[in-house]
Structure formats: structure tokens, C-alpha cells
Amino acid sequence: MASDDGSSVAATQSGPSQKTSWFDKTRRILLVIGIIYAVILLLLCTPFFQRQTLYLNNIRIPLFPKFDLPEKYGLAPNKTLNMMIPTQDGESLGAWFVLSDRYYHKLSASPTRESLAAEHIQVAVRNHPTILFLHGNAATRAFSARVQHYLTFSSRFGANILAIDYRGFGDSTGTPSEQGLIRDARAAWDWLARKGTIAQDVLIVGHSLGTGAGAALTKELGRDGITPKGLVLLSPFSSIREVLETYQLFGLLPLTKPLAMIPWASNLISWVLVHKFDTLKIVPDIDLPVLIAHAENDWDIPDSHSDVLFNAFLDRVLPKVEVPGNALTATKEEYKAMSSSIKKRQAAKEKLVHQVDIPGFGHTESFWDEKRQRNVTLVKTLWGAHDYCGAQEGVQDAIGRLFGFF
Ligand SMILES: *[C@@H]1O[C@H](CO)[C@@H](O)[C@H](O)[C@H]1NC(C)=O
Ligand SMILES: *[C@@H]1O[C@H](CO)[C@@H](O)[C@H](O)[C@H]1NC(C)=O
């Protein structure tokens, strides 16, 4: 016993000094991390850094792009017209118009670039569906993941594609902003209209950041009494705010989680956020058929964003829950009414929503919105990550069936 005591005293004597230096080091490292974190957050409060990190339009992929040579990125010779589209407020947007393969293959001779502009586009938009493609942040319309969408849309769907680079992206002029992107989407729409495209033949397809612009465009068109064929949201977000709250750096580090501990931080985020893209708020203004697709292995935007959006569409057709006006003075009857209305809502949901599990691929949920005579479908895939969700044939087939491309 005595010797045991002695040795333990010796051990604790050498202990403290080691412990303090280890403790000091850790504290210093944490302090540095904390300062870096605070600086990043402060920078993100400035409109300039917000713009840089949200749009990432200065990330030019591919490097040294040859927009006037779409063939370089895999498109058939003279199937694509490279051009500039003017916006209402004087910007100029780089854009590609890709012909439907069903049209392109029927031509007896390969078109020239001149004949594409002068005649083929006008004929193709009148005889085939057209997809207005609104890409996500970073890179340009020549980015390989995007080109892959044009290739499959024009072949499997037989659709024409108009893909634009928003202001500040690619060879477009200007600086990106929320209003600016919506204007750009509208400029692309107006260009199609000038070529003689019928609204009902145009499907608006947004990817990632482009879903924000696409949803806002749909709302604006609805206000003008224009009804496109539908809206597809690929890897969407419910709002930028939600992205900030759910974003995980490298899919691991929750970036703004620590802020959740500060009660006023959440209000602060809303207040400093210049570019909101609040798609969730726009849902009640969208009456078109809608397809939402999201990969479960999306590391940039979690697929819960798509659940939120789908539920918002669903919310409009389900019976409301009767919540007592004042929880403290509510009578037993009021509580009974509430619980029965919750049950009714749940039953209505189960009856309405049709779920199909597709082994090896994912699952779909859909419902028919009787009042608006439209189908709303959510496709959840196991694969595809953030950029290639819509490049999967299973997702394309769901789009094709819903919008009558086959
Ligand atoms: C594509 O168009 C260009 C210019 O209009 C023309 O010179 C070229 O021959 C065309 N390419 C093919 C394969 O016809
Ligand atoms: C919605 O459309 C999809 C694709 O056409 C179809 O499979 C599904 O059954 C439809 N759902 C409802 C509830 O109408």
C-alpha cells in the first residue's frame, strides 16, 4: 500500500506541467480556429463576399472555354447555335440553343450556323418541345455535367434546349444578383417567345441555384398569364437561408451549426442575407405540374430541402389543422377538434400520396392536385450526387413520363 501511494505521488508530480502545456496548445489552436471562423462569418456578412461565395461565377470551368465551338464539348456539328441574348436592363448573356435530335437527324444536309439562326430554330421550336435550362452556381454552360444534360435531353426527349449563362458568368456581361438572375431567366424566355415558341411547349428546368431563378421565373410568368409546360427542380434548395443552416463543408462540418446556439444569430442571418432565393415562399404562386428530383448522396444541398418543397406543395391540397386560438384558454372541445383534424389530414395524405419504391434506384412520391389539375412528383435517387442527379436515366424517364415526352 505504502509503495503504491509513493508511486502515485511521483506520477502526479510530473503530470500537471505536461497537462498545462497540452491544455495551452489546444486552447491556442481552438482560439485560432475560432478567430478564423469569426472572420469568415464577418466576411460573409458583406454583400461582396456573399456574392462571391453564393454565385462562384469567377470559377471558370472549363478553362479557356470556346463557346463558339460547342462541338468541342461533345455536341454534334452545327447542332448548337452560340449567341448573345440581350436583357431588359442592358446586359448581354452568352447562350447556347441546341436542336432536338429528332429535328436535326431529319435534315438532309447538316445545317450551317447561318441557317440555324435564320430558319432551323424557328421551325424546331414549333415542332418539338423546348427545355429552358437554368444552371447552378460556378462554372459555365460548357461545363461537362451540364453538357451531359443537353445531350440526353435532346436525344431521349427529342427536345430543343436553351442554356444561358447568367450575368457575370461565362462570356456574359454584368455582375450576378438575385434580381439579375431572374431577369436573365426572363430574357431567355422572351428570346424563345420571339422565335415563335409556344409557352405550353416549354419546360423550365433549373438545377441547384438555377431552381431559385426557375421558380421565380415561373411565378413571374404566371403573373403575366403565361403558362409553361411545367417546372423541374433538380437538386433544389428551399431557401438560401436554409442552405446556410444545413450546409456541411465537405459533407462533414456543419458550417453554421455553432451559430444556432446564439438566439439572435438566426435573425441576423436573415438580416444580412442579400440574396435570399426563397423558393419555399414562392410555392403558393406555382400552379404548374412540378417534378422535384434530389440525390440522397448530395453533399452540397441535403435532400431534406426537396422534402420541404414537396410538402409545401402538398400542404396546399391537404385539409388544414384546426389549431386552438389560445393554447391556455382552449377548451377540451377545441383540443378534440385539433386532434381529429390532424387525423383527417394524415388520412388524406395517405390516400393522396402515391409512393413507389424502385430497388437500386430510389423512390418516387407523387400526388394529383385536383384543383390545379396537375401532378406533383418527388424523385429521390440513391445516386447522382449534386451535379448528376438529372443526368440519370431514371430521373429523365420520370420527367419524360410526367411531361409527355414519350
Ligand atoms: C457548320 O457551319 C459552318 C459555318 O456556317 C460551315 O462552314 C460548316 O461547313 C458547317 N459544318 C458542317 C459539318 O456542315
Ligand atoms: C404523376 O405522374 C407520374 C408520371 O407520369 C405517374 O407515374 C404518377 O402515377 C402520377 N401520380 C399521380 C398521383 O397522378
UniProtKB/TrEMBL annotation:
<keyword id="KW-0812">Transmembrane</keyword>
<keyword id="KW-1133">Transmembrane helix</keyword>
<dbReference type="GO" id="GO:0005789">
    <property type="term" value="C:endoplasmic reticulum membrane"/>
</dbReference>
<dbReference type="InterPro" id="IPR029058">
    <property type="entry name" value="AB_hydrolase_fold"/>
</dbReference>
<feature type="transmembrane region" description="Helical">
    <location>
        <begin position="29"/>
        <end position="49"/>
    </location>
</feature>
<dbReference type="Pfam" id="PF00561">
    <property type="entry name" value="Abhydrolase_1"/>
</dbReference>
<dbReference type="GO" id="GO:0047372">
    <property type="term" value="F:monoacylglycerol lipase activity"/>
</dbReference>
<keyword id="KW-0472">Membrane</keyword>
<dbReference type="GO" id="GO:0052651">
    <property type="term" value="P:monoacylglycerol catabolic process"/>
</dbReference>
<protein>
    <recommendedName>
        <fullName>AB hydrolase-1 domain-containing protein</fullName>
    </recommendedName>
</protein>
<dbReference type="GO" id="GO:0004622">
    <property type="term" value="F:phosphatidylcholine lysophospholipase activity"/>
</dbReference>
<feature type="domain" description="AB hydrolase-1">
    <location>
        <begin position="129"/>
        <end position="223"/>
    </location>
</feature>
<dbReference type="GO" id="GO:0006660">
    <property type="term" value="P:phosphatidylserine catabolic process"/>
</dbReference>
<dbReference type="InterPro" id="IPR000073">
    <property type="entry name" value="AB_hydrolase_1"/>
</dbReference>
